[in-house]
Write a structure and sequence with these properties.
It is built from nine helices and nine strands. It is of the alpha/beta class. The strands form two sheets. A seven-stranded parallel sheet has the order 4-2-6-1-7-8-9, with helices on both faces. It has a two-stranded parallel sheet with strand order 3-5. Helix 1 runs parallel beside helix 2 and helix 6 packs parallel to helix 7. The relative contact order is 0.18.
Length: 238
């Protein structure tokens, strides 16, 4: 898949670290990688954005973003409040397609969830995926409450006829509770898509060298990793 769109069931659930892990595994497999942040919010002009963080953790990727807005809001709202031009899905798709012509893999990271709006016309990351005919990887939470938002996201992907690559748990706790352990089996069932990885809590705080060594072990072979979903499920089944 030359382009993979990465979204989540909400914000602050590990999309950027998951993007970095996917990039790391692809690099380790000998692929060239570009990371495109569709709309960066909540950072100033000279601050490190999500694409920069992916590059810090993963290594030699091409890091790019379309636009950034200072307030930590949905992209459309942040653009309007800043008096700046919003990002449109067509712009994101065109930039991703150009990067795909020069790289083996382009990772397009969204902001928040699948239907967070980029502009006043209601453009979303789902529109980007459709324009690119690219599959969507969904980063999910591990614990109580994740099943509902995961199933809603999965239903919307199917309603819009989009490719659904699978799920990755963005932060797996050191000591998972009962609900979290049960969710390992429930998540792929409610989503109708495979669980393709689980990142340990705090993965993004690892030194880059340690992150790069460990990342392929957090992801399934479909994402260039070595993680065994069935073995993980068996270990966690209460």
């Amino acid at each position: 898949m030359p382009v993979l769109v990465i979204t989540g069931t909400g914000t602050e659930i590990g999309k950027t670290v998951t993007t970095a892990a996917v990039a790391t595994a692809a690099l380790a497999a000998g692929r060239s990688v570009a990371v495109l942040k569709a709309a960066q919010t909540g950072v100033g002009p000279d601050e490190r954005g999500d694409a920069d963080e992916v590059a810090r953790l993963a290594g030699p990727v091409t890091a790019a973003e379309i636009a950034r807005f200072p307030e930590p809001l949905a992209p459309g709202t942040a653009a309007r409040r800043a008096g700046m031009a919003p990002v449109h899905p067509q712009e994101v798709a065109e930039r991703a397609a150009k990067l795909a012509a020069e790289h083996d893999l382009v990772l397009v990271e969204g902001a928040g969830g699948l239907l967070v709006r980029f502009d006043a016309a209601g453009g979303t990351l789902a529109d980007v995926a459709r324009l690119l005919d690219a599959p969507v990887l969904v980063v999910v939470q591990a614990g109580l409450g994740t099943l509902n938002v995961t199933e809603l996201t999965a239903r919307e992907l199917r309603r819009q006829g989009l490719g659904f690559a699978g799920l990755v748990i963005g932060s797996w706790p050191d000591t998972p509770d009962l609900a979290t352990r049960c969710n390992v089996a429930e998540l792929p069932e409610v989503a109708g898509a495979p669980l393709l990885g689980a990142l340990p809590a705090g993965a993004g705080a690892l030194p880059p060298a340690e992150f790069r060594t460990a990342a392929p072990g957090w992801l399934a072979p479909r994402l260039d990793g070595t993680w065994d979903a069935e073995a993980f499920r068996v270990r966690q089944t209460p």
